[in-house]
Amino acid sequence: MLYSIFLYESATGLLIWDRNFDSTKPDQIEMFSSFFSAIKTFVRETILKGTTTDALKNIEMGDHVITFVVVKELNIDLVFITDRDDEKNVKKVTPKIIEVLMAHGNLFAEEFNGNVRKYQVLTDPIEEVLQKQKGLIDQQKSLIEDKEVFIKQLFTKRGKLDPREEETLRTEWEKLNRQLAITTNLLQKNQILEQMMHIEQRLADDQKFLNSSRIHQQLTKEISDLHYKLNYWLKETKNNMQKAISSIAQTQKSLQDADYKDAYRTLLDFSANIRKIADESLAIRFRDLARYLIDKNTIPPDVLSKAISEIMNLKDDALEIAYNA
What letter does residue 160 receive in the DSSP assignment? Predict the structure, then answer.
């Protein structure tokens, strides 16, 4: 089974094209992003260390193997992640894939400038080669099933750090760990965890990395669920607000005569929960807007009008609101 295939620029170690055949669903890939990121980091570091041969270079990872193929003419590295018993299949498809790459040699004539779109032309011809090799990409398997073994193997093969660098990294990790314990903002916790996992990769500490990965997985799900709920409350608030305004649109009534109770309830839910991903001041602002709706008869008409406009003009995505606050 071929799980992933990558193209890296040899000189810089930058990923320029990849294709994933892992059966993991997109939402699960996001939850296990730290695992897949660790693989890409290892591959990049291996490429930057260089190789002295054009032959296949295999690095075994338990029941799996990472195969590196240097294409010196194009200054790129072709990388496969497969089951260990697929080595022969990789050897069969490699020359054909290199033919595809050589036929598109103009893509690699200049140093990679960050534009990955131009390499998408490679997808169809490479997939055609892979599909013709029976059993290579037509199975339903995932690396996640063996993620702990894979990570242990991955970290075992990393080189040792200078003792002073290791001490510095461990000190920074301890600082971040203390910071994580007192942080309540979920997005900030996520950022701290990602920094910790980066250090854990540098230290090749598989136990800490796997533990952080489990926490990161749970946190990613929590953020995803909250994101869905916040967007629901936000949408309902706008819909309820629109209904309230429409009910007086064809009358001589003022904005203070409309019934905003439904909009008030959903906006209050929104304000109570956005504090989990945003600054407290933003949550207070939405709580105040909700109060304006319920206290409509005790505030000046222009204040109510501005509050309604502010609510109706909110972005439709709660994360965007939180990030831009």
Answer: P
